[in-house]
Design a protein that fits this description.
By secondary structure, this protein is mainly α. Helices cover 88% and strands 0% of the residues. It contains 7 helices and no strands. The chain has helices spanning 3-29, 31-59, 65-87, 90-117, 124-143, 145-170, 174-178. The protein is extended, with a radius of gyration of 23 Å. The termini are close together.
Length: 179
């Protein structure tokens, strides 16, 4: 690879790592506003995507009527979900947390059944322990979905800071690029 391409890639890596660190710091410092901002951006996306789907259904004269109706109804529902998100971003966030909690509980129950009946290729004790931890995590998320979301954002922020900083620290020195 020529030195120009290496320098360009190096700049890309440095910028990406610095952005990751900055976003991670913001997420750790302000987890709830970060969640709200993410929900609002997602809400805008849903409104636009839904409206475009409705527009495509109305304008799609050469497409089958069943597709037009299906696309129009789905587009309307998607846009409505986006509007609900924009009016109160906490609603979809809590729904996501509840779905995650239900998922943890369901996965834990399935793993517990596998651990009790003896799933092939796995040890019973670690499987049962993992299953019980999954059920407990699911119950915790269901009991306090707002706290679970905050913890998730903080952990994600720490991960961004860690990965970004590690990327910067592991980047070869500029002298290595010139060789």
């Amino acid at each position: 690879m020529d030195s120009r391409a290496v320098r360009t890639f190096r700049v890309f890596v440095v910028v990406t790592a610095v952005v990751a660190v900055a976003l991670g710091v913001v997420a750790v410092a302000w987890p709830r506003p970060t969640l709200v901002l993410v929900a609002l951006v997602f809400g805008v996306h849903l409104v636009v995507a839904g409206a475009l789907r409705v527009f495509a259904a109305v304008r799609g004269r050469d497409t089958p009527a069943v597709w037009r109706w299906t696309s129009g109804v789905v587009g309307g529902l998607v846009a409505a979900a986006g509007l609900v998100t924009l009016v109160d971003p906490a609603i979809p966030l809590v729904v996501y947390a509840v779905l995650a909690g239900v998922g943890f509980v369901a996965e834990g129950i399935a793993a517990l059944v596998g651990g009790v009946v003896g799933h092939p290729g796995s040890s019973r004790v670690p499987t049962v322990v993992s299953a019980l931890l999954s059920v407990a995590a699911g119950i915790a998320v269901l009991a306090a979905p707002g706290l679970a979301l905050t913890v998730f954002v903080v952990v994600a922020g720490v991960a961004l800071v860690t990965v970004g900083a590690a990327t910067l620290l592991l980047l070869p020195p500029r002298a290595a690029v010139r060789r």
